[in-house]
Structures are given as C-alpha cells and as structure tokens.
Amino acid sequence: MPLFWFCLAIIIGIFTASFLLLPFYIWASAALICLILGWFEYLHFRSRNHPLLSRPIFRIPFALILCAFFIGGVRFQSALPVLSPDKLLWHVSDTPIVLTGVVKSDPYRANNLTSAVIQSESIEIGGEEVKVKGDMSLLLPAGFNIRYGDRLTLTGPLKQTFNTDSLPVTSRSAQQKLFTGMAFPNIQTISYGNGSKIMDFLYRLRKRAHEIIYDLMPFPESSVLSGILLGIESGIPDYLWDAYRASGTIHIIAISGFNITLIAKFISRSFRRLFGLKGSLTATVCAILFYTLLVGADLPVVRAAIMAAIALPAYQIGRRAIGIHNLTLAGAVMLIINPFLLWNISFQLSFLATLALLTLVDPIDNLIRRILEKKISAHSIEIYMPVVTLFTTTFSASLVVFPVLFRLNAELSLTSLFANFLIAPFQPLIMALGGSAVLFGLVIPPLGHLLGMFAWPFVAFCDQIAIRLSMSDSAVISLPAYVFWISLLLTVIVLITSSYHQIFSFSKPKIIEQEP
Questions:
Q1: Of 59, 207, 230, 262, which sees the most CB atoms within 10 A?
Q2: Neighbouring residues of 283: CB distance < 8 A, sequence distance ≥ 6
Q3: Closest by alpha carbon to 65, among 52, 75, 56?
Q4: Comparing C-alpha atoms, which of 296, 294, 295, 291 is closest to residue 309?
Q5: Where are the alpha helices (DSSP H) in 220-322?
C-alpha cells in the first residue's frame, strides 16, 4: 500500500503548511531532496532488510513519505492567491469597476437571492480593457434570469472574500478559490452560449428533470425528491428543512456517496451480462461521471465518484477493495486540485462519515454478532443483523462527524438514531422509483407519472417522520463548550484505532469470488 502512505503524507503536508508558513522554495527544495534520497534508499535497501520496504503493508522508503509531505506543503503554498495586475484580486476596490466575464456555473436560485460563479475576462481601466484572470462569486436578487454561458458586463464594487490578515481557508468562498465577489451590481448581457456545449446540455437536462419532478408529485414532496436526486434543495420549505435537521436526518435529502454507490451497483450488474467485464466497467464509469456532472459536482459526490472509479476495477476482477485506501486516494486527489477544501465543512463531513462507515461498522457488527451467537440461533441472527447494521451505520457516522457539527451548532438531536432507523431504509426505494419516474417522464410522460404516484407515499412518509420527531422541545438539547474537546479526543482515538486495525488486516489481501 505505498500509494496510501504517499497520499496520507500529502494530506498531512497540506494541513501543516497552513500554520507553518515557509517560503515556497523551501518546500519545493525539501521535496526534491527527499525524492532523490528516496531513490537512493530504494536502490540500497531493496535487497536488504528495511523497516518499511521489507513489509508488504508499506513497500515505501522513508524519504519518499517525507517527499510526499513536502509536496503537500508545495501545493498549499502554490494555491495561495498572488497579487499581480493580471489577477482579479489586484483590482479589489470600494469604488465601482466595470468587469466583463462569463457565467461559469449553473446559477443557484433560492427564495431570497441568486448566486453564480463568474470567470473574469477583462476590466475597464481609464477607458481601456485590461485582461485579467480569476473567478469571483456573484450575488443577485431572487428571480434574476442569468444562465450558464452568458457573457456579462458587471458594474459595481469588487470585494475580497477573506480577511487580508488571515489565510483564505477561513472563508467559505475562498475555500472554493473565489477570492473576490460582487453583490448586486448593474448587469448588461452581451451574448449567450459562451460555455461548454456539454455542460450547457447537462444543466438544461438538470433543469428539465427538476421541472418533471415538480410535475410528478405534489409539493413539498417534490422539493425533497429534487434534493435527493438532483441536489437542488432551494425549493425545500424552511419548516421541512428544519425538521430534517432537528431529527438528524438532513443527510437523507442531500446528494451523497450513497447515490453513487446505488448507481454503480445497478449499472455494473445490469450491463455485465450484456457487454462483459470491460464493457460494464466502461458503462459504469461513464454513468458515474455523467451523474456527477449532472448534479453539479458537489464535494461528497466527487469524493464518492473518485472512490468508485478506483474500486470498480478491483471489484470487477473479484479482488477485495481496501476502502480506506480508496478514500485516502480520493481525498488526496481532491486536495491536490484544491488544497483549501481541507477546511471545507462539506468535505470534512463527507470524508469523516465515509471513514466511519469503512472502519467502524464492520467491527461493531461483528462484536454484536458474537454476542448474539451466545444467546439466539443462527437463523434469528441473520434476521436481526440488517436492523443492527442500520443502527450501527447511523451511530458510527453520527459519532465521527459530531465534533464538526458541534462547531456549527452546539446541539444534540435525541431522535437521530430512531429517525434514521425509520427513514434510511426507504432511501434506495425512493431513489429507484423517483429516478425511474424522471427518466420515463423525459420520454414517456404517462409512465413517468405512474411511477411518480408510487414514489410519492414513501417521500411523504419520510417527511412526516422528520416533522413529528422534531416537534418536541426535548428533541434537541444544547451542550456546553467543553463537550467539543471531549468528543474530538474520543473521535480521534476511535478513528486511529479502527483505521490501524483495518490497514494492517489487509497486509495479505485475499481473492473473493466474483458475482455471477
């Protein structure tokens, strides 16, 4: 597993570089020196006893791990904004400026505002256009009609999205490399259709699917299904959003890795008999990529898509995929692209929840199974274990992400486990029926409406469970500040221990039988 240790060292290096602010050339020089030392270390010890190279679980030189650590520092330093006249950040001003740019994202439309990402092209200085580079965030009033690919002229003050005396990681916008922004400027549309034809098609398809969902079933169930399938959550009413949050089931209506897993399994099994091993693998990867782009490439989906693409070849040939290995590789790839994501709440929740599912669920289930084996029959155990797994899955994920959620809101949902037990089993069914209804609604509307009628009761049931379990004043309790440090310490100990056992349990990977 040399790639695992290499990727883990990169992630640690990125984190370290955020408070160890060394010049770029120091990080780069150290990485180069360690790379050379790693090569010599490998040549010298490859036929000798070495504490890492001679062990199958490592197979990597010490110096190469240090090289990866310094590469993480290099990547963080290189991502920091640089002030120069050709960068948009250079032109931040309290006085209005004239900027020309293209809408780079699918605009997000909420009840009170519209937001989008603008790829800047030029600004006007002294009556002359000056080319500039950089993306910025744009805020507009609700209902403002802009689309992906529109070229706009914006007139207004250009603001910096993070404090000058702090790193960009402290700002949610800057974490997405949006170092500047405009709020409610004067707008003039110059032209349309200036973006990628593929992305324009996907965004239009997403909009059409969103309209079909609202036509398939009544509100507010349609808004919840749109959040589950397409990641469009802006239409969910506040009372329903608060109910899911208070009941600890907000993850049900958010695009997550679970959606990717269902799609990957369905496509892989459906196409394997038709196209064979290679054909089904290609079809599955293409479906994952298509769905990831369709729903807007949110962080949990991107992470899950990378993990699935890595694990699929191993799964197809019957080898056991190492979940924590794939998760670390996916995290490192995302952080190399944008190292500021390490401080993004969505990235943290997605990464930690997945890590909990990969390392905690099986050990807890095995412990419970051993206890039950002493008390009940094997047949009864097989009946009870799916229910047990549902509880342990929810408990594991909730335990690990608790410190992150506590920093956002120092509250604890007392109904979370029970609510997830009632709602979570219906998510695959909702996705299958709802997704089929949308697909058929695009080509055969009557059949889509019929499937939508079958999907609606399950969505309505989940809504009612969330609402009723959140109505009690005692459903959510406030916690003192010291609980954060206790929970953080426990979480770190649990994750390190469980990850250690899983990593070293794979020192001798074994072959498993292929599915028919």
A1: 230
A2: 267, 271, 275
A3: 52
A4: 291
A5: 221-230, 238-246, 257-294, 299-316
Q: Using CA atoms of 20, 133, 303, 492 in order, give the dihedral in degrees to the nearest 10.
A: 20
Give tens-digit pLDDT for 289-333.
Answer: 777 777 766 666 776 677 666 666 555 544 445 667 778 888 888
pLDDT in tens, 397-420: 778 888 887 877 777 777 777 787
Report the chain's C-alpha Rg in angstroms. 25
The predicted model scores a pTM of 0.79
Instruction: Please give the single-letter amino acid code of residue 398.
Output: S
d(CA 310, CA 260) in angstroms, rounded, equals: 13
Q: Do residues 41 and 62 make contact, with C-beta atoms less than 8 angstroms apart?
A: yes
d(CA 208, CA 307): 29
CB atoms within 10 A of CB 154: 22
CA–CA distance, 207 with 68 (Å, rounded to integer): 42
Q: At what angle do helices 345-359 and 299-316 cross, to 10 degrees?
A: 30
What would the 3-class secondary structure string for 9-75 be? HHHHHHHHHCCCCCCHHHHHHHHHHHHHHHHHHHHHHCCCCCCCCCCCCCCCCHHHHHHHHHHHHHH
